[in-house]
Amino acid sequence: MEIITNICLSLQYSMQKTVQKLLPLLTTLALSSIPFLPEIAQAQIRYSPLIIEANAQQGQARGIIEVTNGGKQPFRGRIYAEAFTYNRNGFVPEKSNPQDLTPFLTFSPRELVIEPGQTRRIRLVSQFLPSTPTGEYRAVIFTEGLEEVQTQGQYTVGIKPRFGITMYVRQGNVSPNLTIQSASFNPQTKKITLLLNNKGTASIFPNTIWTLKQGTNTVATGESKDYTVIAGGERDVALDFAENGKKVVAGEYELTGNLVWGDREKPQKLPFNFRIKISPEAANTANAKTP
Fold first, then answer.
1. CA gap 290, 96 in Å, rounded
2. How deeply is 228 buried, as exposed, middle or buried, from its count of CB atoms within 10 A (0-12, 13-18, 19+)?
3. Where among 112, 147, 171 does a domain terminate?
4. H-run or E-run covering 240
5. Spatial separation of the C-alpha atoms in residues 178 and 198, rounded to whole Å
6. Distance CA 279, CA 30 (A)
7. Helices (H), the chain
8. Distance CA 111, CA 78 (A)
9. What is the pTM of this model?
10. If we measure between CA atoms, which residue out of 200, 184, 246, 199 comes closest to residue 220?
11. Smallest Cα–Cα separation from 122: which of 46, 66, 48, 47?
């Protein structure tokens, strides 16, 4: 599942050029890069589940988030919800949208303290009005640390991590309708991109299992994480077949595989088979970016 993480920054600095170089790096940090700043890892917060899906019954749906502190320091945080969507590249926060769940959502507690090794529960309740139209409504529920972590040096960086889980509540009869629009090679990223399209009224979270062949030779295989394809939206899924500086070879390829989602015991599958041609010019562009 996709993990939504951000860090909020406050900067005090003595060297303008240093900050100009530092700021773009810090503002793009995600959870995977946090261990490089040891102080930030003091409160190692884990969430379960990362996605909540619920069908409203008589206008009401419920959910529970479990938050665990696996670190060595207490964690103080506040809870709040925002509207969001996904575009082709990923998660996008929004102030509001027609599918915003936040006007119908209540949760408790709104602030919490989690001691090391402890788990706290956040209870979520959505209550629709009788006049609420049929459809899927969604919100991201953020937990934001209330205490800034400070790193010292020739500059001081105050860092507030926040972590989000997404909640999808379906009101009435809604369902996804997933298709694969195209598959193409991107020489700038050295990856094959699948363009997924969900023409349905409910979001879907497929995993991509794929094999790339050139003639009878298997070039690469892989399995992507679950991607969110929002109701009525599109999503790019990047398949990395040239990892670790592997050269891209021009020619014709066959990409086969399945999109898989739903019940683990009896999953739903959407098979695909694409012919992809990589021109010598595209291969040269891709290989020129290899260190």
1. 42
2. buried
3. 171
4. none
5. 4
6. 35
7. 16-26, 280-288
8. 4
9. 0.82
10. 246
11. 66
Q: How confident is the model at residue 163 (pLDDT cuts 50, 70, 90)?
A: confident
191-198 and 178-186 beta bridge pairing = antiparallel
103 φ, ψ (degrees, to nearest 5): -65, -20
Q: Each residue of 1-15: pLDDT tens digit?
A: 676 765 444 434 333
Task: Show the tokens assigned to 249.
Answer: 């070879």
Tokens of 197: 């399209």
Residue 278's contacts (CB-CB under 8 Å, 6 or more residues apart) are 185, 248, 249, 250, 251, 252, 253
Phi, psi for 87 (deg, rounded to 5):
-105, -165
| Number of other CB atoms surrounding residue 80 within 10 Å | 16
Which two three-digit tokens encode residue 262? 């739903």
For residues 36 and 197, which has the higher predicted lDDT (pLDDT)?
197
DSSP state of 37: S
Amino acid at 228: T
Residues in the chain: 291
Cβ-proximal residues to 217 (8 Å cutoff; 6+ apart), any chain: none
Q: Within this chain, do residues 10 and 97 fall inside the same structural domain, yes or no?
A: yes
Q: Are residues 32 and 147 in the same domain?
A: yes
> Is residue 290 very low, low, confident or very high in pLDDT (cuts 50, 70, 90)?
low
Of 171, 205, 223, the last residue of a domain is 171
Residue with tokens 């008589």: 58
Separation of alpha carbons 158 and 95, rounded Å: 25
